[in-house]
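tool=predict chain=A
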Amino acid sequence: MMGNSINNDTSDLKETEFKMFAAKHIVVGILLAVVALWVAGSILGFFEKATGVKVARPHETAHKTKAESANEQAKTAEPETLKEKIEYKKGTAGYIMRNDFPVETVHKKPAVKAPVYPGASPEVEAAKAKISRPKGVVFIEALVQPLTYELHQRFWGWRPNDILNFTDNVNNFQQGVLEVTRRTAVILAERISRTGSTAAFDPNLERAMNCFMIKSDRYWFPSAESKYSDGIKELKIYREKLVKGAAKFYTRTDNLIPLLAAYEDLLGSCDENLIKDKEDNGTPVSFFKADDYFFYAKGVASAMHTILGAILEDFHTTIDSRRGLELLHRAIESCHHAVEIDPLIVTNSNLSGVLANHRANMAAPISHARFCLEVLIKTLST
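tool=predict ok
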């Protein structure tokens, strides 16, 4: 009897010990599971904050509706925008087209979506203001920009009328910019701003045209800088009149052709000076004269690049109706290539020599731009 009692007591003791052991392990297991879930949630939350990517969780995925799934598929199927296909040259109004992008698609303008909430963002308001600007505003801004930079933003300002001239390269560059500005101002005053030969001249444009005709080396009474600045002010007044509807800007073909013809003549003169071997008196083109021709042509290409970009904007419908946009794009691109040629020293070597002939290098894009404008004029005339 005593043996059975001892055995029962032993069994009860072992059962009690087992229950305590199991209870401890169950509690520890639950605590470890809770800690593991907390750590996993913390890691996922940190990942979402750091990367901005929402991590799909099983309980969230299960409650997604068919409409939400369709919306996500539509977002992923959206086509690429055109803005990555067009590069904008800083400081100009022109468009530089990438070689791997067809010309036809460049002509399409990206649409600006109006916000669905009251009070548009500054970016949308600026885009809407640009789109709604009257014809001619972009053109006037492009006309003013190159000469304004040479007068007020370039170091040492306007240089052709300096008493001591140490920078003939910049001087010739500025002469090229001035010549493009002059010819554009004349066509603007005589043709683009008028309905015909019997219409009165716009007084601001007439004064601007006369201001730009002052010799570039005139030192004072009046100085070239002051008269050119006055001309720019008159152009800006005309721009404000366009915005208010008090002036006109006619984008007809018969107004655009004389402007392009003036540019073609100017590029033709530059092309001749860049490729000729001898001067008019029979002497060879000297080293010092070669860089004068080079930088003058570069100044012409720089200003023309800016204004041709504005023509693409304001005369877009006129040119597109005659299928001439591709030619204008090529002319802009050629002017851009000319501006990008920037040697440390302009050399006038033999075409077969070791050193470069930078006049010939500049002549290639200048000649191509002139050819494109010539074909464009014929296209617009038909």
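The chain has two domains: 2-76, 127-381. Residues 271 and 366 are 6 Å apart (CA to CA).
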